[in-house]
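Onboarding guide, step 5: your first structure request.
Type a short instruction followed by the sequence, for example:

Predict the 3D structure of this protein.
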Amino acid sequence: MNNPIISFVSQLADQEQIAWLALLSAKLPYECIKLDKDLSAVEKTQCEIAIVANPDPIILSQYSKLIWIQSLWAGVDALVTQLTDNKPLPSFKLIRLIDPLLAQTMSEAVLTWVLYLHRDMPKYLKQQNSSQWIQHHYLRPQERTVGVLGLGKLGELSAMRLNENGFNVLGWSQSQKLIHGVGCYSGDDGLITMVKQCNIIICLLPLTSDTYQLIDNNLLKNLPQGASLINFARGGIVANEDLIQQLDSDHLEHAILDVFEQEPLNKNDAFWSHKDITVLPHISAPTHFESAGDIVAENICKYRLNGSLPVSIDWNKGY
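The system replies with structure tokens like these:
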């Protein structure tokens, strides 16, 4: 007996959808995977599994027998909000992409941009623009304290990689963690205690109702004078006006921002031209095409074999 059709539901460009469909079909030769637009209303009611990438939640509501959906992205906060905001919680499970390669890629980006700040690259860039030849005092990595906000898979590996490169590393999460070589904090009091020690903080938290605008004036003021911020998580976690205020007052030295509440970033946004902000186009840890395809295929094969699934999103927590 043939397995039910698997739907691919997304708002990606047609060319991207076709590429994903070809990849997943090649990795799952015994499955019938079709684009949502190619399914009849009857076929949609028979689907138990959907693979999604920025799906329209209204379209997902047409799939009455969905058991689970597999996201192609690690970040699913926007989708969770769309599916739960003022609505009954979905009956199906949501599986985010958990890819060890993604964690490696993120840790590489974290190390890259921490080194950028550690070696005073923003200062030297400004000096080049004004033809200034000034050498700044060198600090050893162990003299620089770096704090990682969020100690999930991405944050844990990033913290460990920074530690391996000699930095004094601290980490914070909502629940207490234990990571070799990393001073771990938790809870509201632990957050401020950690932040007060950090020369650089990196945000790798999920966006939830608890973390929305968590990085505000209160938190930023508790950073030491001359500290810097890296946000590789979600734009909504940072209170933008508060960040600019702390940069303009010279309390903070620099901010590296890879994520924004509106993407692409509006061409008129003040972030583009701010002298103490580096803008990146959401490139810190992109989904790897082949690796993601392997993980999705493995999840579906295990489900067909024995009905097992990876850990799913807790709809109440949002992650």
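Each response can be followed by summary notes, for example: DSSP finds eleven helices and twelve strands in the chain.
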